[in-house]
Amino acid sequence: MSGVEEDLRRTADQLRRATGVFVLTGAGISAESGVPTFRGAGGLWRRFRAEDLASPEGFARDPALVWEWYNERRRAMREARPNAAHRTLARWDERFSDFLIATQNIDGLHQRGGARRVVELHGSIWRARCTKTGKLFRIDEEVDVESTLPPPSPAGGGAILRPDIVWFGETLPPQAVAQVERFFDEERFQIAFVIGTSAAIGYIQVWIYTLARAGVFVVEVNPDPCLGGAASATLAGPAGELLPRLDSLAWPCAE
Ligand code: OAD
Predict the structure, then answer these.
(1) What is the pTM of this model?
(2) Could you give the CA distance from residue 140 to residue 128 in angstroms, rounded to a whole number?
(3) Alpha-carbon span 217 to 226, nearest angstrom
(4) Catalytic residue positions?
(5) Per-residue pLDDT at 1 exceeds 70
């Protein structure tokens, strides 16, 4: 039996026995939906400078350019559909009483795939925020962010809107972090999945190593794994293939 097959089998055993599941996702889970990742071959940070487009300084320098970049990405994300990995996680959301997805993604594909318990750590490309009042607006439904750049805020007085996205140098939304930490403190999950992330960001690494040290069964799903010894099992391959396989190994009779 190959390494992946053996790890699939061990993970399926753990999953079947678990009462709760924690899932941490990154750009790789949406790769099979056609959304580009940030790092690696074809990654966005190969072609664009993160500090120009995803930082408060970049926005202060050229807000229209930053909006153009996010508007283009939003158009592409609108065409993207949730893939088999998003749908498998949505089924687990229904199956487990204790369940949480913490995502670094801003594309909303977990929710569109049917998951309900999702914490967005880096904000959402579907929301805009007033730079003066901090009020949030749903893009398209409440505000138009394409006709005039940078888009004016409904608050008036020359205020503008910014994407409701966490940029480099900014802190994570405190409610999102609190929700994840509450879930950790309750200790009602035995298995954690780390899917499609290069774990390049410090707080992500801290969470993963904290879970591993606490004895949680950590499963990495990534064609190019990076967690090394922190992972109890490594499913080296695309999430859209491996998560449905894992699901049918764990519950062979389920639809
Ligand atoms: P990265 O682009 O850093 O990493 C994507 C990971 O997904 C890589 O490890 C790939 O090997 C893996 N991958 C690719 N295809 C996959 C597939 N089909 N199935 C599973 N995994 C696959 O993206 P993130 O780790 O999400 O922040 O990056 C974290 C943050 O850094 C992002 O939220 C963004 C970025 O800069 C901001 O914009 C502030």
Answers:
(1) 0.97
(2) 10
(3) 16
(4) 122
(5) no
